[in-house]
Each structure stands twice: as structure tokens, then as C-alpha cells.
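Ops channel
N.P.: pipeline sanity check, posting one input/output pair.
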């Protein structure tokens, strides 16, 4: 069997995705269809994975899945906190910070395109158009960073050398570069250094806020009903 499929690849700053020149056509030939048959889970299989019994393996899988779920929930809560900080901000960030954030976002997109093996000019990405489209997002991000920096200053939170070294190692692992290369690239670029320290400071301030949150847990379906106040 042979299937023909037209697929759209929207790229920020690219032409309208509804235009024909923004689509690629793939012809897919199906040669074989296979059905996966899973073997019965036994202690022998569990032992090959480093566990004594199936019960131990199931317990480890459950703990791992719960850990991922907890991380997702923590990220969701932190995102809500960030949104509230932006909402409560009483002033807009300075234009210089907005421009720096926009530059960082655009350079990040260029880096992702380069990592995929494609040239920026062949990707359809238009930095000038993206600068206009992403401005509101840059203002939102910068406002949140500004509020987190205020929290950090109030709580006497600072970026340490150990924090920077941890960031170098993380970026080196993500980009498959050496720690020395990452450190040299960041330290030689004032904008990159400022962005990195702002990121770390914001993370530490956010972790402080999160650690001081009080949570009340409910079973699904037992959540309290929030009353809506009517004006007038």
C-alpha cells in the first residue's frame, strides 16, 4: 500500500502555514505490518533488569512514574506562581531587558535550527518577524524575572560559583559540549552571562516561594467548589 500525505511545518516568523509553499508532501510505502506480542512478566525478566522479583520491579516502576508525576505537578504549580507574579507587577520592565530577552529567544531558535542540521536561511525562520511576534512573550518573561529578582534581593539570595558550575555542567550535557567550552562562551559574552545569572537567581527565588507554599490535597471529585463573587 502507498499513502500520500501533505504535512504543514509552521515555523515562527515563517509565511502563513496555509500557503502551499509552507507544506511538504511525503509518499509513504507500507511494506509490512507487525503486531507486538509481550512476554509474560516473570522473576527471570525482573532479575535481568536488576531486581529480585516481579514485585520489586513493579514497585520501582511505580516509584519512577510517581516521581515524574510529582515533577510535572511541581512545574505546573511554579508556572502558576510565575503567572501570579507577573499579574501582580506594578511596573513594566525596562526596554533594555525586553530587548535582551528577545535577542536571547531568537538566538535560542537559531541554535535549535542549527542543531537540527538545517541552515537558518533554509528553515523559513524570519528573525525580524519573530521579533514582533514574540515581543509580548518577552515582556511577560522579563516581568516575571524582574519580580523574582525582587524576591531574591528581599531574601538575600545570591548566585554562587557553585551555582554557575552546576549550570555549566547542565548545559554541557544538554549540548554535548565540554564544560570548558560552555564556561568560555558564557563568560566572554556579557548578555549571555547576565541571562544565565538571571535564570539561576530566578530559579532559586522560585524554589524558595515553592518551598513555603502550603498544599491541601483532595481526592479526584472531592475538590472544594470556589464561589464566584458577583459585583454590584
Amino acid at each position: 500500500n502507498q499513502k500520500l500525505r501533505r504535512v504543514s511545518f509552521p515555523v515562527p516568523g515563517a509565511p502563513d502555514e496555509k500557503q502551499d509553499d509552507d507544506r511538504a508532501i511525503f509518499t509513504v510505502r507500507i511494506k509490512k505490518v507487525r503486531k507486538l506480542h509481550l512476554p509474560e512478566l516473570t522473576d527471570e525478566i525482573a532479575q535481568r533488569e536488576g531486581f529480585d522479583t516481579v514485585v520489586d520491579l513493579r514497585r520501582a516502576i511505580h516509584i519512577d512514574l510517581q516521581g515524574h508525576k510529582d515533577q510535572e505537578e511541581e512545574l505546573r504549580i511554579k508556572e502558576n506562581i510565575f503567572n501570579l507574579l507577573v499579574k501582580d507587577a506594578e511596573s513594566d520592565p525596562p526596554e533594555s531587558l525586553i530587548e535582551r530577552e528577545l535577542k536571547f529567544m531568537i538566538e535560542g531558535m537559531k541554535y535549535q535550527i542549527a542543531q537540527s542540521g538545517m541552515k537558518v536561511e533554509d528553515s523559513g525562520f524570519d528573525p525580524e518577524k519573530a521579533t514582533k511576534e514574540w515581543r509580548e512573550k518577552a515582556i511577560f518573561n522579563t516581568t516575571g524575572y524582574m519580580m523574582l529578582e525582587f524576591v531574591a534581593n528581599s531574601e538575600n539570595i545570591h548566585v554562587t560559583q557553585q551555582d554557575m558550575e552546576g549550570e555549566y555542567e547542565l548545559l554541557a550535557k544538554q549540548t554535548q559540549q565540554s564544560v570548558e567550552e560552555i564556561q568560555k562562551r558564557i563568560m566572554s559574552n556579557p548578555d549571555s552571562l547576565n541571562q544565565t545569572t538571571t535564570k539561576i537567581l530566578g530559579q532559586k527565588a522560585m524554589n524558595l516561594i515553592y518551598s513555603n507554599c502550603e498544599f491541601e490535597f483532595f481526592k479526584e471529585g472531592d475538590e472544594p467548589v470556589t464561589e464566584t463573587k458577583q459585583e454590584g
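N.P.: looks fine end to end. Residues 3 and 28 are 5 Å apart (CA to CA).
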